[in-house]
Specification:
The structure is a single chain. The chain has 20 helices and no strands. Helix 1 runs antiparallel to helix 11 (256-293) and helix 11 packs antiparallel against helix 12. The protein is mainly α. The protein is 84% helix and 0% strand.
Length: 513
């Protein structure tokens, strides 16, 4: 059951991300050609600033999913209903709170953007971003329920369908009208329709949650949830200050146009990160079920498999990005949209560090470890903000991202593995970092070899990009297969794939007869 659910989540997630990535690049190209870099900067900055309001959510989403694992596994419908009722009420309050905060910070946001009269109807543009932010929370409790039940692929399938439609419509609007406001209005109404449709699907799959009868939780459960939410609130503040303030700092110290340039890189890195996340998140709900029902030894064995998968995907992604991002941007958008090489390298380092901790973060959150490190993200955020401001004044744009590197390595990089290895696996932390250094060394050596062969391909046209992409996918995979083919982790993966294949053959044969 767990394996099949994970497989479905991963397959649907990967396919959807590939489609979204393709449409996203086409849409971004049309956006820049139709509206220019300043509008791109405004779009990125508003998205970034208003994401700060997600702090009001206080980590309720993660708390919901963690709380639902056991009652769903035990088919305890009364507990599921009680949790859903609690979180539905909480999200309604959050939606109102976000609206109020959005109104309060409006003057400050307009001042930061400093667009004067160059962007017409900026008030309406801001309102549309706010409304889209609010709509997210009106249906969040139902999305959390279906994800906790290992059926996230259903929501993903719906999302990809709507994403294709809305992207095609937005591209048409940009080409025909060059109207930024109409572009946003279409996006908002499609997003509302998407949320409404997901709500209908969840109601059909879990009709028992529609009851009007009240199901209370006992005091201890409420206290646990309250403590988790408080801790996750601090985690969210820290995460925003680390990852959400970059555009604000760039706009304040470097310039709004640079925000637009940086957004091209974040789009590429973000899309690839989403592709990685679709694989690891597809496993995530099953990890929660695993920790709730299996032994510590089994959990640690599965973690080592996921850790290898995490490394494999993240390592190849970094190698791919290093060799292809800049020539791709030159081909995709044109000359003059690149950041300096030092900034680019630091961005890739941060991408690797963040990507490589996905597996350990998955086990941490699914094990419900929220309270023990609640102050660490604040410390990380403080270090990041101070160092970034100091360095941006001395070395420029690269300093903002170097601050992120330093703050991460000095805090959560070592503390999250410490908590998981101590409280979940009960094994030595040395095992984690020994493996981490081993994986990092393999990544560096493989990157050097791959880059050598990639540089033999000249030009920045579509054919040279395809050739380089083929090299960046083929050489690392061959090297890793040679190194890990006989490992226990790969043997386990092969057995899972064999079981899935056998299951599919049996289904096909049964349908034939």
């Amino acid at each position: 059951m767990r394996v099949n659910s994970s497989a479905k989540n991963i397959i649907i997630g990967v396919i959807s991300q590939i489609v979204i990535i393709f449409l996203g690049f086409v849409s971004r190209k049309v956006f820049i050609d139709s509206l220019g870099a300043e509008y791109l900067g405004i779009n990125g900055l508003l998205t970034n600033v208003l994401s700060m309001l997600a702090l009001v959510e206080s980590g309720i989403g993660a708390s919901i999913i963690y709380s639902l694992y056991k009652p769903l596994a035990n088919n305890d419908k009364s507990k599921v209903i009680a949790l859903i009722q609690l979180f539905k009420k909480a999200y309604a309050i959050i939606a109102v709170g976000i609206l109020i905060l959005s109104i309060i910070i409006y003057p400050l946001v307009i001042r930061v953007m400093d667009v004067n009269d160059t962007i017409p109807s900026i008030e309406i543009v801001y309102l549309i971003f706010v409304l889209k932010n609010i709509v997210t929370y009106l249906n969040a409790h139902k999305v959390s329920l279906i994800n906790a039940d290992q059926k996230g692929y259903i929501v993903t399938t719906i999302n990809i369908g709507f994403q294709i439609i809305v992207t095609l419509i937005k591209i048409f609007i940009l080409i025909k009208t060059q109207n930024f406001l109409l572009y946003l209005i279409i996006e908002l109404f499609m997003f509302i329709g998407q949320s409404f449709y997901i709500s209908i699907i969840v109601n059909k799959r879990y009709p028992y949650i529609k009851t009007t009868e009240k199901y209370p939780l006992d005091k201890q459960e409420k206290l646990t949830i309250k403590n988790n939410v408080k801790a996750l609130f601090l985690h969210n503040i820290g995460s925003f200050c680390i990852f959400g303030t970059d555009n604000i700092l760039i706009s304040a110290y470097v310039g709004l146009v640079t925000v637009g340039l940086y957004s091209n890189y974040t789009m590429i890195l973000g899309q690839l990160n989403s592709l990685i996340s679709s694989i690891l998140d597809g496993i995530g709900s099953s990890v929660g079920n695993l920790l709730a029902t299996e032994s510590t030894f089994k959990s640690y064995s599965i973690f080592k498999v996921i850790y290898l998968i995490n490394f494999w995907i993240c390592s190849i992604s970094v190698i791919f990005l290093y060799n292809l991002v800049e020539p791709f941007i030159n081909w995709w958008i044109g000359k003059g949209y690149l950041l300096d090489s030092v900034t680019f390298i630091i961005l890739l380092i941060n991408f690797y560090i963040t990507g490589m901790r996905s597996s350990i973060f998955t086990f941490k959150s699914k094990a419900g470890i929220f309270v023990k490190d609640k102050y660490f993200p604040l410390v990380e955020a403080a270090i990041n903000l101070v160092i970034s401001i100091i360095l941006v004044k001395t070395i420029g744009l690269a300093g903002i991202f170097l601050g992120t590197t330093i703050s991460t390595l000095s805090t959560v990089f070592w503390n999250v593995p410490r908590l998981v290895y101590k409280d979940v696996f009960h094994v030595s932390l040395i095992l984690y970092f020994t493996k981490y250094l081993y994986y990092f060394g393999i990544t560096l050596i493989t990157c050097v070899i791959t880059t050598y062969f990639s540089n033999l391909i000249e030009g920045e046209n579509i054919f040279s990009l395809i050739k380089k992409g083929f090299i960046c996918l083929t050489i690392p995979n061959l090297i890793y297969l040679i190194i890990f083919y006989k490992s226990k982790e790969v043997t386990y993966i092969k057995s899972i794939l064999l079981n899935i294949t056998s299951g599919l053959k049996m289904k096909l044969n049964s349908r034939t007869f």
